[in-house]
Amino acid sequence: MREGQMRSPLGDLEGRKFDVAVIGAGVNGASAAQHLAGAGYDVILVDKGDYGSGSSSRSSRLLHCGLRYFAPGKSVWEFLRHPSRGLTALRMARLAMQARRQIVQTAPERTRELTFHFPIWRDGIYRPWQVKLALGMLARLAPCDVPLDNRVLTPNEAIKIPLVNGLRDWGRLEGVGAFREYQFDWPERFCVDAVLDAERLGAVVRNYTAATQCTRQGEGWTIELTDVLATGEKVRIGSRLVLNMAGIWIDKVNATTGKPRERKVLGTKGIHVMVQLPPQCADNGIVTFNRRGEPLYCIPWRGMHYFGPTETVYEGDLDDVRATEEEIVDLLAESNHLLPRLGIERRDILFAWAGVRPLSYDKALPMGNRSRDVHDLAADGLPGMLAMTAGPIMTHRSAGLEMLDVVKRRIAPSKAPQQMSYAARMFPENQNSPPLLADWTQAKFSDLRHAAEHEHATSLVDLMFRRVGAGWTRSMGRDVAERAAASVADILGWDEARARAEASEYRSYLKRMHALPDV
After folding, report:
1. Beta bridge partners of 444
2. What is the per-residue pLDDT for 93?
3. How many CB atoms lie within 10 A of CB 49?
4. Do 120 and 127 touch, CB atoms closer than 8 A?
5. Is the preceding omega at residue 186 within 30 degrees of 0, hence cis?
6. How far is CA 36 from the centre of its chain?
7. How far is CA 44 from CA 41, 154, 167, 402, in A?
8. Residue 242 in 3-state DSSP?
9. What is the pLDDT of residue 227?
10. Nearest Cα residue to 164 out of 127, 62, 307, 173
11. Which residue, 155, 112, 157, is CA-closest to 282?
């Protein structure tokens, strides 16, 4: 299949042999496939859903500096009692700062600069000197061309800043740490860009294609692939190595080998809620802790703000992760405790979303280990299969490089290397095309048509959320669903009934997955 074409029949792959099969096309799997293809490996990348439709699409969207890694837990002395955790925090913070610089410089169209504020209360967990120390350590890790711009403001300075001046308990505020932060706009598009570049480099890429059985044969693997759309077609392919990059589904992929395996992933659920704050609050954000000592953010986004995340262990259906009403009410209470003057009510919430973090399972850590780990599954009786856990979105490029290094130590590439590209893949300019939405004019109908023709989308949800980003707006595109579906119907082979059904399913998706009222 040529780069960018719509999906070809799965049967075309029957009996194909690859150097590496990457299972899971979230942002880390996509990055691994991109780096491997660039290095000359013959790669296939598959995902049972759309590219970037799992945890990669459900995060806090922060290309953050790594400050949260220096939050040791209930006590500031925890790193002294557990030096290995301190070293892990330093390693992850360094990776975060390196990723921050590289992404801001190579894909500036996909990032947005913010100013974050960390309030320091007299009775809080941290003292001003500790915040200064943590920001100072991060500033030393930051390159000069993408600085942290960190400082600690006095209450008299901070009260002049919109949003910050609405903080609780102003009389007990000792200061506010301020620093430059960046945001992915938006993570799913980073994933799609990496997938398309991997395809340009020769990789076979397929969404809605599940790895339903993995069997060790000789020196490699035989993998049964199933088209999960209407056909249900099955084929078998071969691969010398398998990279299980399936995120929260890693243990389920391991189970396709037919035997129980040691648990690798612990999922923790986080939800966010989107609200409309006064326009003067734009570009200002807050990072702090809720009353349970868990991180809590207020983050600007396309003229709105969102609060989150929550953090609870998740053992539910991995294919149906949604924000519950109880979780929304709890997050709303924490948001109002932080910024009581805003008086946010349940009816003020525009929409919500939920995701599950694929953390490393560790019996000693009930909430999982945030250290990014590569697991050689030979120890589990699966030689030639490797998995990565706890890979955050912000370090997906170094994750791809790490998996490339792991593969290089085992097998040589079968083709010549090529130059890969981190650049954002922008849509062709079309001055004659109207904007898709009235409330967010960055996406055009021509963009939607280009994505339908060249970017493997199969549904209106694929297009609106993961190709053009219109789903992550105030209106979420619900008012233009029929027009959007009709505009791509000729490309995707939809008749009028199918186009109407796509629009209806899009609205159902918004209600089901984003806690919208009847739309």
Report:
1. 435
2. 82
3. 19
4. yes
5. yes
6. 21
7. 10, 54, 50, 18
8. strand
9. 96
10. 173
11. 112
- The Cα 236–Cα 140 span in angstroms is 51
Beta strands in 64-163 (DSSP E): 111-121, 151-153
Instruction: Give the span between the Cα atoms of 54 and 30, in whole angstroms.
Output: 13
What are the residue ranges in the chain where pLDDT is below 50? 1-4, 74-75
Contact 27, 404 (CB under 8 A): no
C-alpha 480/C-alpha 486 separation (Å) is: 10
Residue-wise DSSP of 390-417: S--GGGHHHHHHHHHHHHHTT---SS--
* Res 77: pLDDT: 54
Q: What is the pLDDT of residue 168?
A: 97
Q: What is the pLDDT of residue 303?
A: 95
Half-sphere exposure of 282 (CA within 13 A, CB side): 6
Q: How many CB atoms lie within 10 A of CB 494?
A: 19
Query: What's the sign of the alpha-carbon dihedral 169, 170, 175, 176?
Result: positive
Q: Does residue 475 contact residue 437 with C-beta atoms inside 8 Å?
A: yes
pTM: 0.94
Residue with tokens 């009510």: 345
Q: Rounded CA gap, 252 and 240, in Å?
A: 21
Angstrom distance (rounded) from CA 149 to CA 100:
14
Per the structure block, which two tokens stand in for 419? 């130059």
